Amino acid sequence: MKIQIISENTIMVYFTNTIDTETSEKVTQALYVLQSSLGNVILDAIPSYHSILITVDILQTNMNDFQQQVEALLNQPLSASMSLPHLDIELPVYYGEEVALDAAEVCAHSGLSWSDVTEIHNQANYRVYAIGFAPGFAYLGNLDRRLQIPRKSTPRARVPKGSVAIAGQQTAVYPKTSPGGWHIIGRTPISLVDFERDNLSLFHIGAQVCFKAISRQQFIDMGGELDTVGLLDTNKRAKS
């Protein structure tokens, strides 16, 4: 572990350089400990795969003192009174052709049938390693090796809200309509961002996420929208 002052009011806690469950667990535990013990002087804490960027209220403490407090806290084992909250999330996903905009590319790259792709994707449990890019966008791993595929060479200008995607060893869901370079394999009708929740995003660092395949009718009944803008954009590029 390495603790480094980045600016007059930010500090970075580094763990290892690896992306794995053990490192993610350390980040999750450290985040919980710091927020529980020093939350009164922490303005913001942004966890990633193997680090935490902390913004400090320098009107209440100085950076050197804060760094020493962080080091002392994180060098101690997690106490029983600071047991981590566990959160399991199940997301329904429709894998139909109207929304699986990159089904053909994924099948061609993997050599698998589409039914095999969807079965492999929704049989696994994924861990929330980081949240970023856009509010509610969670980086989930680890994706089965059989489904791993590089990012698209040409990103889409518009990925529909709720699109379920894969790239590298990760999978994710686009919380709102936005540009994106991941391969789209389905769509969820569930809204990932809710301004009425205490936590804006449905996801939490360290949470376990699984996907459940649903039918077209179930998707529609749950409020899912079948706009095909992304598909139209793909067809236009193919003809140009």
UniProtKB/TrEMBL annotation:
The keyword Hydrolase belongs to this UniProt entry's keyword annotation: yes
Domain Carboxyltransferase positions: 1-203
Classification via InterPro entries: CT_C_D (IPR003833), Cyclophilin-like_dom_sf (IPR029000), PxpB (IPR010016)
Domain of life of the native organism: Bacteria
GO function terms (MF aspect): 5-oxoprolinase (ATP-hydrolyzing) activity
Gene3D superfamilies reported for this sequence: 3.30.1360.40, Cyclophilin-like
Protein's UniProt keywords contain Nucleotide-binding: yes
Pfam (any one): CT_C_D
E.C. number(s) listed in UniProt: 3.5.2.9
Record keywords: ATP-binding, Hydrolase, Nucleotide-binding
NCBIfam families in the record: 5-oxoprolinase subunit PxpB
Name of this protein: 5-oxoprolinase subunit PxpB
Species of provenance: Vibrio rumoiensis
Lineage of producing organism: Bacteria, Pseudomonadati, Pseudomonadota, Gammaproteobacteria, Vibrionales
The gene coding this protein: pxpB
